[in-house]
């Protein structure tokens, strides 16, 4: 479904991703792990067309989308949940959702069924929401574009542990019950591995490990070597 083939990309003359490859099948989820600054966000930005690709190809369905602008990628089914959430502060929850709606199975009612908290807050303005509600709204907005693949950039950042668990369950449900594929960039490896089928670990803009999430989660020594984190430090 998505094929990232030997992609070299960056900003201006700076190369961040170096011949990076991975692929995702329909309805599958991928965790993108790595230490700070290895290029995880740049991978998502490249998927959305926001970086300079100097070689390689990005294929989506039957199309080579390497040079497509972001709005065409959204139309083709890429759903972007940015790290900054980018909720419109002066629009209500309902307006935030409605402005990005595209035809398809996801509509206001379905997003509210999925995140009942958003239904309760439908008349509140974007700047009146808690961090967790803003994150639900950011995901709800991506769902309103009726994507086939969700790109989530550190969705748990800054959330209280109880919300982290709730959101992790929601994201897993999107994949398992709704058939959505996803790419999850996450600082907390254990959480990210619980939420996904496959995982890649990046170092200096390239893939140094690829495999099933459950296998990596079970190999504490490998996790520690690749990511240099004590598992006991990880919340959730
Ligand atoms: N807009 C930009 N212009 C120039 N360089 C950038 C830009 N965004 C990121 N970079 C550089 O690209 C490299 C990779 O950054 P990126 O944000 O992709 O890493 P990351 O793995 O997501 O890190 P973190 O976990 O800290 O968010 C860094 O050296 C960063 O300074």
UniProtKB/TrEMBL annotation:
Residues passing through the membrane, by range: none
UniProt superkingdom: Bacteria
Keyword terms of this UniProt record: Amino-acid transport, ATP-binding, Cell membrane, Membrane, Nucleotide-binding, Transport
Keyword ATP-binding set for record: yes
Pfam families found in the cross-reference section: ABC_tran
Molecular function GO labels: ATP binding
Keyword ATP-binding recorded: yes
Annotated InterPro entries: AAA+_ATPase (IPR003593), ABC_transporter-like_ATP-bd (IPR003439), ABC_transporter-like_CS (IPR017871), BCAA_Transport_ATP-bd_LivF (IPR052156), P-loop_NTPase (IPR027417)
Domain ABC transporter positions: 2-229
Family per record: Belongs to the ABC transporter superfamily.
Protein name: ABC transporter ATP-binding protein
Source species of the chain: Variovorax ureilyticus
Classification lineage: Bacteria, Pseudomonadati, Pseudomonadota, Betaproteobacteria, Burkholderiales
